[in-house]
Amino acid sequence: MHIHYLFHSGFLAETANCYYVFDYYRGELPLLQKTKPVLVFSSHRHPDHYNQEIFNLLKSQGMEQITAVLSKDIPKEAYPQDVPVIRVTFHEQYDLPYGCQLKTLLSTDEGVAFLLKCPEGALYHAGDLNDWVWAEESEQYNKQMTGSYRHEIDLLKDEKIDAAFLPLDPRQEKDYARGILYFLKQIKVGRIFPMHYWEQPEIITRFIHEYPQYREIIMYTEDYR
Protein backbone atom coordinates (compact mmCIF):
# COMPACT_ATOMS: atom_id res chain seq x y z
CA MET A 1 0.00 0.00 0.00
CA HIS A 2 1.30 3.44 -0.94
CA ILE A 3 0.17 6.56 0.90
CA HIS A 4 0.20 9.89 -0.95
CA TYR A 5 -0.33 13.09 1.03
CA LEU A 6 -2.45 15.67 -0.79
CA PHE A 7 -2.93 18.65 1.53
CA HIS A 8 -4.18 19.42 5.06
CA SER A 9 -6.20 16.29 5.94
CA GLY A 10 -6.28 14.85 2.44
CA PHE A 11 -4.68 11.53 1.52
CA LEU A 12 -4.70 9.08 -1.34
CA ALA A 13 -4.04 5.44 -0.47
CA GLU A 14 -3.20 3.19 -3.42
CA THR A 15 -3.41 -0.59 -3.30
CA ALA A 16 -3.04 -3.21 -6.00
CA ASN A 17 -6.73 -3.12 -6.83
CA CYS A 18 -8.21 0.18 -5.62
CA TYR A 19 -7.65 3.83 -4.70
CA TYR A 20 -8.98 5.38 -1.49
CA VAL A 21 -9.20 9.18 -1.21
CA PHE A 22 -9.83 10.78 2.19
CA ASP A 23 -11.01 14.34 2.95
CA TYR A 24 -9.77 16.03 -0.20
CA TYR A 25 -9.45 19.80 0.23
CA ARG A 26 -6.95 20.84 -2.43
CA GLY A 27 -3.77 19.62 -4.04
CA GLU A 28 -2.73 17.70 -7.13
CA LEU A 29 -3.40 14.05 -7.68
CA PRO A 30 -0.68 11.77 -9.05
CA LEU A 31 -1.28 10.03 -12.36
CA LEU A 32 -3.78 7.24 -11.68
CA GLN A 33 -4.50 3.96 -13.42
CA LYS A 34 -7.84 4.27 -15.17
CA THR A 35 -8.68 0.61 -14.68
CA LYS A 36 -8.73 0.89 -10.87
CA PRO A 37 -11.87 1.88 -8.97
CA VAL A 38 -11.84 4.79 -6.51
CA LEU A 39 -13.60 5.21 -3.17
CA VAL A 40 -13.80 8.86 -2.08
CA PHE A 41 -14.39 9.48 1.64
CA SER A 42 -15.39 12.80 3.22
CA SER A 43 -15.76 12.90 6.98
CA HIS A 44 -17.88 16.06 7.21
CA ARG A 45 -19.07 19.20 5.48
CA HIS A 46 -16.33 21.67 6.48
CA PRO A 47 -14.72 23.06 3.32
CA ASP A 48 -11.25 21.97 4.44
CA HIS A 49 -12.53 18.36 4.44
CA TYR A 50 -15.01 18.22 1.55
CA ASN A 51 -14.42 19.71 -1.87
CA GLN A 52 -16.44 18.51 -4.85
CA GLU A 53 -13.48 19.34 -7.08
CA ILE A 54 -12.03 15.91 -6.28
CA PHE A 55 -14.62 14.30 -8.54
CA ASN A 56 -13.71 16.60 -11.44
CA LEU A 57 -10.03 15.78 -10.94
CA LEU A 58 -10.74 12.07 -11.01
CA LYS A 59 -12.94 12.32 -14.09
CA SER A 60 -10.32 14.44 -15.87
CA GLN A 61 -7.98 11.45 -15.59
CA GLY A 62 -10.60 9.19 -17.12
CA MET A 63 -11.51 7.42 -13.90
CA GLU A 64 -14.91 5.82 -14.40
CA GLN A 65 -15.44 3.64 -11.33
CA ILE A 66 -15.91 6.28 -8.63
CA THR A 67 -17.96 5.84 -5.46
CA ALA A 68 -18.43 8.56 -2.83
CA VAL A 69 -18.74 7.75 0.88
CA LEU A 70 -20.04 10.90 2.54
CA SER A 71 -20.96 11.80 6.09
CA LYS A 72 -24.68 12.49 6.43
CA ASP A 73 -24.06 16.13 7.47
CA ILE A 74 -22.92 16.91 3.93
CA PRO A 75 -26.02 18.36 2.20
CA LYS A 76 -27.40 16.43 -0.73
CA GLU A 77 -27.21 19.49 -2.98
CA ALA A 78 -23.43 19.26 -2.57
CA TYR A 79 -23.29 15.68 -3.84
CA PRO A 80 -21.36 15.01 -7.06
CA GLN A 81 -23.27 14.42 -10.27
CA ASP A 82 -23.19 11.00 -11.91
CA VAL A 83 -21.35 9.43 -8.94
CA PRO A 84 -23.04 6.93 -6.62
CA VAL A 85 -23.09 8.13 -3.01
CA ILE A 86 -23.10 6.03 0.14
CA ARG A 87 -24.35 8.22 3.00
CA VAL A 88 -22.96 7.26 6.40
CA THR A 89 -23.52 8.19 10.02
CA PHE A 90 -21.65 7.50 13.26
CA HIS A 91 -21.43 4.23 15.20
CA GLU A 92 -22.44 2.12 12.21
CA GLN A 93 -20.82 -0.52 10.03
CA TYR A 94 -21.12 -0.72 6.26
CA ASP A 95 -20.21 -3.20 3.56
CA LEU A 96 -18.58 -1.21 0.77
CA PRO A 97 -17.64 -2.17 -2.78
CA TYR A 98 -14.40 -3.98 -3.62
CA GLY A 99 -14.31 -6.15 -0.50
CA CYS A 100 -14.17 -3.28 2.01
CA GLN A 101 -15.85 -2.85 5.38
CA LEU A 102 -16.33 0.50 7.09
CA LYS A 103 -16.81 1.33 10.77
CA THR A 104 -17.63 4.90 11.80
CA LEU A 105 -17.02 6.86 14.98
CA LEU A 106 -18.64 10.09 16.22
CA SER A 107 -16.47 13.14 15.70
CA THR A 108 -15.88 15.57 18.57
CA ASP A 109 -16.45 18.34 16.04
CA GLU A 110 -18.64 17.41 13.07
CA GLY A 111 -19.35 14.28 11.10
CA VAL A 112 -17.54 10.99 11.53
CA ALA A 113 -14.19 9.25 11.67
CA PHE A 114 -13.51 6.27 9.40
CA LEU A 115 -12.03 2.85 10.10
CA LEU A 116 -11.71 1.23 6.69
CA LYS A 117 -10.81 -2.42 6.36
CA CYS A 118 -9.77 -3.28 2.84
CA PRO A 119 -8.18 -6.49 1.52
CA GLU A 120 -4.68 -5.01 1.90
CA GLY A 121 -5.05 -3.69 5.46
CA ALA A 122 -6.85 -1.34 7.84
CA LEU A 123 -6.84 2.45 7.52
CA TYR A 124 -8.11 4.94 10.09
CA HIS A 125 -8.91 8.53 9.15
CA ALA A 126 -9.91 10.71 12.08
CA GLY A 127 -11.55 13.54 10.18
CA ASP A 128 -12.02 16.09 12.97
CA LEU A 129 -12.24 13.53 15.77
CA ASN A 130 -9.64 14.85 18.17
CA ASP A 131 -9.14 15.94 21.78
CA TRP A 132 -9.92 19.59 21.02
CA VAL A 133 -8.78 21.14 24.30
CA TRP A 134 -8.31 24.91 24.09
CA ALA A 135 -6.74 27.30 26.60
CA GLU A 136 -9.58 29.80 26.18
CA GLU A 137 -12.32 27.25 26.96
CA SER A 138 -13.66 26.43 30.41
CA GLU A 139 -12.33 23.55 32.48
CA GLN A 140 -15.73 21.85 32.21
CA TYR A 141 -15.71 22.10 28.41
CA ASN A 142 -12.20 20.68 28.15
CA LYS A 143 -12.94 17.80 30.51
CA GLN A 144 -16.04 16.91 28.55
CA MET A 145 -14.08 17.11 25.30
CA THR A 146 -11.38 14.77 26.59
CA GLY A 147 -13.96 12.30 27.87
CA SER A 148 -15.85 12.27 24.57
CA TYR A 149 -12.67 11.81 22.56
CA ARG A 150 -11.37 8.97 24.71
CA HIS A 151 -14.72 7.20 24.62
CA GLU A 152 -14.58 7.09 20.82
CA ILE A 153 -10.95 5.99 20.62
CA ASP A 154 -11.57 3.24 23.16
CA LEU A 155 -14.03 1.73 20.67
CA LEU A 156 -10.97 0.86 18.56
CA LYS A 157 -9.05 -0.98 21.28
CA ASP A 158 -9.53 -4.39 19.71
CA GLU A 159 -8.51 -3.23 16.24
CA LYS A 160 -5.13 -3.54 14.56
CA ILE A 161 -4.60 -0.54 12.29
CA ASP A 162 -1.93 -0.42 9.60
CA ALA A 163 -2.02 3.32 8.93
CA ALA A 164 -3.74 6.11 10.86
CA PHE A 165 -4.26 9.71 9.76
CA LEU A 166 -4.49 11.89 12.88
CA PRO A 167 -4.73 15.64 13.63
CA LEU A 168 -1.65 17.33 15.03
CA ASP A 169 -2.87 20.90 15.25
CA PRO A 170 -0.44 23.68 16.31
CA ARG A 171 -3.36 25.99 17.16
CA GLN A 172 -3.80 23.98 20.37
CA GLU A 173 -0.41 25.22 21.53
CA LYS A 174 0.75 23.19 24.57
CA ASP A 175 -2.12 20.72 24.07
CA TYR A 176 -1.29 20.04 20.42
CA ALA A 177 -0.42 16.37 21.03
CA ARG A 178 -3.17 15.33 23.46
CA GLY A 179 -5.21 13.44 20.91
CA ILE A 180 -2.40 11.67 19.12
CA LEU A 181 -0.73 10.62 22.38
CA TYR A 182 -3.87 8.97 23.71
CA PHE A 183 -4.39 7.19 20.41
CA LEU A 184 -0.83 5.85 20.44
CA LYS A 185 -1.17 4.58 24.00
CA GLN A 186 -4.45 2.79 23.33
CA ILE A 187 -4.31 1.49 19.77
CA LYS A 188 -2.12 -0.98 17.92
CA VAL A 189 -0.97 0.91 14.85
CA GLY A 190 1.74 0.43 12.25
CA ARG A 191 2.23 3.99 10.97
CA ILE A 192 0.91 7.43 11.89
CA PHE A 193 0.45 10.19 9.30
CA PRO A 194 -0.06 13.58 11.02
CA MET A 195 -2.52 15.96 9.38
CA HIS A 196 -4.56 19.13 9.94
CA TYR A 197 -1.45 21.14 10.83
CA TRP A 198 -2.33 24.19 8.72
CA GLU A 199 0.83 24.31 6.58
CA GLN A 200 3.06 24.16 9.64
CA PRO A 201 4.83 20.79 9.16
CA GLU A 202 7.42 21.79 11.76
CA ILE A 203 4.88 20.60 14.35
CA ILE A 204 5.76 17.05 13.28
CA THR A 205 9.44 17.72 13.98
CA ARG A 206 8.49 19.12 17.38
CA PHE A 207 6.45 16.02 18.19
CA ILE A 208 9.26 13.66 17.22
CA HIS A 209 11.71 15.70 19.32
CA GLU A 210 9.42 15.70 22.38
CA TYR A 211 8.30 12.07 22.02
CA PRO A 212 11.23 10.20 20.42
CA GLN A 213 9.77 6.84 21.46
CA TYR A 214 7.38 7.19 18.53
CA ARG A 215 9.99 8.23 15.98
CA GLU A 216 9.85 4.99 14.02
CA ILE A 217 6.12 5.09 13.30
CA ILE A 218 5.50 8.82 12.77
CA MET A 219 5.69 9.68 9.09
CA TYR A 220 6.88 13.13 8.08
CA THR A 221 3.86 13.77 5.89
CA GLU A 222 5.41 16.35 3.57
CA ASP A 223 7.74 13.61 2.30
CA TYR A 224 4.75 11.59 1.09
CA ARG A 225 3.47 13.86 -1.63
Strand content: 25-35%
Number-wise, the strands total 12
Q: How helical, in percent, are the residues?
A: 10-25%
For the largest sheet, list the strands in their spatial order: 1-2-3-4-5-6
User: What low-confidence regions span 5 or more consecutive residues with pLDDT below 50?
Assistant: none
Distance between the termini: 14 Å
Indicate the mean pLDDT: 96
Query: What's the story with the biggest beta sheet?
Result: 6 strands, mixed
Tally of helical segments: 4
Descriptive report:
- The chain has 225 residues and is of the alpha/beta class.
- The protein is 19% helix and 31% strand.
- It has four helices and twelve strands; from the N terminus they run ββββαββββββαβαβα.
- The protein has a six-stranded mixed sheet, covered by helices on one side. Strands 7-8-9-10-11-12 form a six-stranded mixed sheet, covered by helices on one side.
- A hairpin with a 5-residue loop joins β8 (100-106) and β9.
Note the topology.
Blueprint: E1 2-7, E2 10-14, E3 19-22, E4 38-42, H1 53-60, E5 66-71, E6 85-88, E7 93-96, E8 100-106, E9 112-118, E10 121-125, H2 139-154, E11 160-167, H3 178-186, E12 188-195, H4 202-210
Parallel strand pairs: 3-4, 4-5, 5-6, 10-11, 11-12
Antiparallel strand pairs: 1-2, 2-3, 7-8, 8-9, 9-10
Helix pairs in contact: 2-3
